[in-house]
Amino acid sequence: MRRRDPKGRLEALQAVVAALAHPARRQILLTVHLRGGSMTAGGIAGRFAHAWPTTTRHMRVLEAAGLLSHERVGRTRVYRIDHSRLDHLKEWLSWFDDAPKRRAKRRR
Amino acid sequence: MRRRDPKGRLEALQAVVAALAHPARRQILLTVHLRGGSMTAGGIAGRFAHAWPTTTRHMRVLEAAGLLSHERVGRTRVYRIDHSRLDHLKEWLSWFDDAPKRRAKRRR
DNA sequence: CAAATATTGAGCCGATTGGCTAAATGTCGT
DNA sequence: ACGACATTTAGCCAATCGGCTCAATATTTG
Predict the structure, then answer these.
(1) How far in angstroms lies nucleotide D16's C1' from the CA of residue B37?
(2) How far apart are CA A15 and CA B20, in angstroms?
(3) Chain A: residue whose CA lies nearest to B32
(4) Residue B102 lies in a domain
């Protein structure tokens, strides 16, 4: 029930939501996912209007957030999606699922 | 099944995720929610370390994203949460729920 | 009406973001 | 070893962000 390391979880949530805040990064993630979960850097960059280094940087942000990882294969780098980190966000969102559950704190 | 206005939906998603990208704004939203769904501006601002106008600005961002709305009551303003917009984000996240569903597009 | 209260608006300012181009790095084929 | 290819690193620069302080605007109360 991963309830360990609340500080780390907060940071992870922050990294994830910040990474998703940019449309290009959301699209990168979705593109890789829909194409089977992994793509080369060039395959990704080729699909975007941005200059290649710009897209590379977005990938670095996604990787720093733990949403993407990469592996070198010959002279290409293959990026693989890891959507387990998205659970942090889903978990946060689930606070809003039911009617507000007032906590054990006297109302003022 | 709200499938209308794809452009508007994209913009809404962007506004929502950008609004949630800041920890103070996430906390404002959660605070209002947990306290029953509505609070005065002062009630909110009083709980944060930031200067009051700073928090006010965060509230404006949340309101622009459709996550908060307000109503004037006497000399106070009561903010009310509207978490229906969070569904845009949940919907986007749901792309990643199952194994990648390759679309009707020949693989290369 | 004047003073107190509740809240926002205006505007400054340093830090971060996200685009770009040019150069560096690493690998493959000849 | 050399040249072509795949990708990243470095660094510039304009725009946005998010803090702040100091007004400005309602609204209630005396």
Answers:
(1) 31
(2) 12
(3) A100
(4) no
